[in-house]
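In response to the reviewer comment on reproducibility (Comment 2.3), we provide here a single inverse folding case reported in full, input and output, so that an independent group could reproduce the run without further information from us. The structure tokens appear first.
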């Protein structure tokens, strides 16, 4: 049995990380387990972030989900150092042979050739412009973006092609790109969603260990809005029994910071996330764990998760209906919109390359 000292040492080794375990991915034939045989006396090694470079063959991903408003997206990175325990992208790491747990936030994949691939795909004669979503899987402005600059190069390509883009992020690095985004926004080509989960800094630090705190994210909304960039605040996810009581306060604070629209998404626990989240609850909020999961199951037909289109984002049942009603009333009171205006697609054009015949008109 693990001693109290061993438990504390292991917790110290993963400090600043969201998950507390690292079970092998669901496609792997074997599971890994650490066993204390009494011989090793050194404390566990502190978990570091490792980045692998991927030479992407394609960069635009297509989807047909009726629950989301876009049909194409880009992911500059796989995995996310932010370490949000609730991140619905965690199970995607299993396709790479990694764990959805600690691997997801420590073994990252960067795609430095994303901008070059994007130029090729946008230049195809068959390409028809529609808003391109970035940040819908993993955050494009996670800490490693400061080194790799992939997102900034992608934005420069989109600006050159006059292509509409929507971005969802929690990362303050987006402020670095206000110069590009403000010009695109002025032409009706860009809008941003900022995800904010709680106003409680301690809850945020435990749930989203490497994400800027709530006050800093509200400052991001203010700075982007002041630069003329339309911002939609995303209260996502709403965790029943832990953060749901903050819905009105979060919408109000976002409105005061300058957000023009707002939305919310109920906590989702697909695949491996259900076990990861429940382990996290038991460690950080043991007094609320049963209440949180009880409420979740009330809103998910008795299960940890249901993936039916139409209800997976908001849940169902009495509590879900009450949450939706509170959201709608608060939006009306504050004068916030549910969605931002549509972006322009008619400006899209492929810029001429060296040696191309230029038009006289």
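Designed residues, in position order:
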């Amino acid at each position: 049995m693990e001693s109290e000292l061993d438990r504390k040492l292991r917790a110290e080794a993963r400090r600043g990380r969201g998950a507390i375990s690292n079970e092998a991915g669901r496609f792997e034939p074997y599971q890994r387990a650490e066993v204390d045989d009494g011989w090793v006396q050194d404390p566990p090694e502190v978990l570091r972030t490792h980045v692998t470079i991927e030479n992407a063959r394609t960069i635009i991903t297509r989807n047909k989900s009726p629950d989301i408003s876009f049909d194409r997206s880009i992911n500059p990175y796989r995995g996310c150092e932010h370490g949000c325990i609730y991140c619905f992208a965690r199970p995607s790491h299993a396709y790479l042979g990694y764990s959805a747990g600690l691997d997801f936030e420590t073994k990252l994949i960067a795609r430095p050739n994303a901008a070059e691939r994007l130029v090729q795909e946008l230049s195809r004669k068959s390409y028809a412009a529609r808003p391109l979503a970035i940040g819908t899987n993993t955050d494009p402005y996670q800490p490693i973006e400061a080194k790799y600059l992939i997102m900034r190069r992608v934005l420069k390509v989109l600006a050159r092609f006059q292509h509409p883009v929507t971005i969802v992020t929690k990362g303050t690095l987006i402020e670095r790109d206000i110069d590009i985004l403000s010009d695109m926004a002025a032409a009706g080509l860009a809008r941003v969603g900022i995800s904010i989960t709680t106003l409680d800094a301690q809850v945020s630090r435990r749930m989203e260990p490497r994400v800027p705190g709530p006050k800093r994210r509200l400052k991001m909304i203010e700075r982007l809005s002041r630069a003329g960039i339309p911002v939609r605040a995303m209260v996502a996810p709403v965790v029943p029994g832990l953060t749901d009581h903050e819905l009105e306060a979060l919408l109000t604070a976002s409105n005061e910071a300058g957000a023009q629209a707002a939305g919310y998404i109920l906590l989702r626990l697909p695949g491996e996330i259900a076990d990861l989240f429940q382990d996290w609850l038991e460690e950080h909020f043991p007094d609320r764990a049963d209440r949180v999961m009880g409420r979740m199951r009330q809103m998910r037909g008795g299960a940890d998760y249901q993936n039916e289109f139409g209800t997976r984002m908001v849940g169902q049942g009495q509590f879900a209906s009450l949450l939706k009603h509170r959201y709608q009333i608060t939006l009306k009171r504050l004068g916030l919109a549910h969605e931002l205006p549509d972006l322009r697609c008619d400006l899209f054009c492929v810029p001429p390359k060296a040696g191309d015949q230029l038009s006289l008109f």
